[in-house]
Amino acid sequence: MAQPPILRPDLDTIVSLAETISRCARQLESSGASVGTPPSPPASPKTQQNIQGTERTELREACDKLLYLAAGPYEHLMATAQSHRVEAALQFAAHFDLASYVPSDGSSIAFSELAAATGLPTLQISRMFRILVVYHIFCEPRLGFVAHNACSRLLLEQHIHATVSYYTDESFRAASCLSETTRKWPGTQERNETALNLAYNTTLPKFEFFNAEPWRAARFRMAMAGMTQGESFSLQHLVQGFDWASLPEGSMVADIGGGGGHVSVALAKAHTKLNFIVQDLKTAFDGNSIPESLSGRISFREHNFFTTQPSSADVFLLRWILHDYPDKFARKILQNTVAAMKPGSRIVVMEGVMQPPGSQSHICERKSRLLDVAMMTLLNSSERDLDAWKSLFYEADPSLKLVKVTTPAASALSVMELQLDV
Ligand SMILES: C[S@@+](CC[C@H](N)C(=O)[O-])C[C@H]1O[C@@H](n2cnc3c(N)ncnc32)[C@H](O)[C@@H]1O
């Protein structure tokens, strides 16, 4: 019987990895990229742009493997098993908004002063900060004082703070209930039998639960915008990943499940001849911030995508919607969308397309694996590979044809274009 292929044979040694690191570092330095310590404040976080491109991926991959080999199996396993403690410290910092108490001009503040300002115990504050410091978040420039570094300064940005809060609160707490959930509801695809349901003792599915506590819905919406700040989920990939310029002037894009409208804003800025209707649940419309200059081209409409699509559009955009649902629900969303399509209109789906295990670097593969576990934990859904996407589209409607798949460089998501085959 044929043996399955051996995945990713690991032939690297500490020395060969060190050589790779040295080569990549030299290439990056000669290309003018900053490979040293990120500047400390008051430089703007935007000025410490990460090292870009394939050299960066190769460098990170080699560093990651080298760290693993240097640590050895026992240390690596134990460090991984304890990573929740770092997450807990970050949750603490996000929950009490500690970054906002640290001077943004680069100077430091005493732990005791921070404790007085927040009403938290000094000892607990210092212990939480000190674990973050050894993970490169904040620094302690002199004993008993904390200051921002380039990484902690990101927490001053509202959207990034919301992303970290969401990851370290709902996402983290739900993840700790995953095994218990599997024992209780093995193999379920129900939206309200998830680890999130156990963690929060609720019978509501994720988005209904968030809507019942509008501050969670608002934070999640902001978190979605925060996730687009990095390279992998940048909205530029959507701006460039579909031929928006080919649409006639005045075309309408329905941004289904568009949250606070951040995706439509990015597209509207780049494509000035297009109009947008952002559809989402009611709570999405509280305090949304569309720039004045775009308000004539972007409107909002309350719409539950499990019901009949009420808008006519040239493009129906589903960015990061279908991966939230197991097939039976995702099919329904697509069918409601198909029913509203007119001749020539298209569906644009932007989602991860899982690659076969071992076909990417660990650093790249981790992103889709982490997302996949998040989907399992919070929604009983999953990331899909191309075959799974194709069969979902076919089962939703056999006349729905996937005409193009584009994966922009450095994007963790692909743009899939669908048309009706009439
Ligand atoms: C993962 S977010 C994606 C947001 C945005 N499309 C993006 O790419 O950043 C899912 C969005 O779907 C919305 N949503 C969830 N259930 C919905 C429903 N039944 N009808 C309409 N929108 C819904 C959520 O409020 C949220 O804004």
Automatic annotation (TrEMBL):
GO terms for biological process: methylation. The keyword Transferase applies. It comes from the Eukaryota. Residues 45-54 have a biased composition (Polar residues). PROSITE patterns: SAM_OMT_II. One of its GO terms (molecular function) is O-methyltransferase activity. Residues 28-54 are annotated as: Disordered. Residues 191-396 form the O-methyltransferase C-terminal domain. Gene3D superfamilies: Vaccinia Virus protein VP39, Winged helix-like DNA-binding domain superfamily/Winged helix DNA-binding domain. Pfam families: Methyltransf_2. InterPro entries: COMT-like, COMT_C, SAM-dependent_MTases_sf, WH-like_DNA-bd_sf, WH_DNA-bd_sf. This is O-methyltransferase C-terminal domain-containing protein. Keywords: Methyltransferase, S-adenosyl-L-methionine, Transferase.
